[in-house]
Write a structure and sequence with these properties.
By secondary structure, this protein is mainly α. It has seven helices and seven strands; from the N terminus they run E-E-E-E-H-E-E-H-H-H-H-E-H-H. A hairpin with a 4-residue loop joins strand 5 (80-83) and strand 6 (88-91).
Amino acid sequence: MSALQRATDLGLIACPVCGLVCRNVPGDERLDGDGVGDHMACPRCDATLRRRKPKSYTRTWALLIAAFFMYIPANVVPIMRTASLNDVDDNTIISGVVELWRNDSSDLAIIVFTASILVPMLKFIALTTLLISSHRGSGWARVQRAKLYRLVELIGYWSMLDVFVVALLTALVRFSVLSRVEPLPGVIFFGLTVVLTMLASMSFDPRLIWDGRDIDD
């Protein structure tokens, strides 16, 4: 890996808007808060070019911590209330999974558990690993970490499954006389968790994985 050159070593930078790969683009090259500059303009679409996302570590950590604090009430506060003639039942994510399992809907219970419990936790672990290892300039498994980042981006949207289920059930049972389904505040916390983790993964610059390569390899 030490023989491979990065785009920054060759004086290349890709435009995030039109995808044009530019070389030695003239422009203002002031340093930002992370110590990286190269504030240049794309010659084709005039978009701002940066070799690294500004304040990537700070923004990603802030969004990830905020998402974790939202994730706690998302699992404690009920997300849905099911009311019938003689019963009112408030369900959290965990209790909903248990209820599905007891009602012989094991397949759906596994899907909901994976999308609403397992995926968010794995995203927390994966992003934390990427942040710590990249900030330390670690040379450990760079290719695998780059693939891990792409996986986090790919599966992030599936975490919204619980929100979609509640919205669908609310719409389907809304006009029923004998029963009704109401969303509860837990849905808001869970939705915020998903949105914040998605923003955190978008704020992280995967190019940081390859910085410090010459020192560690």
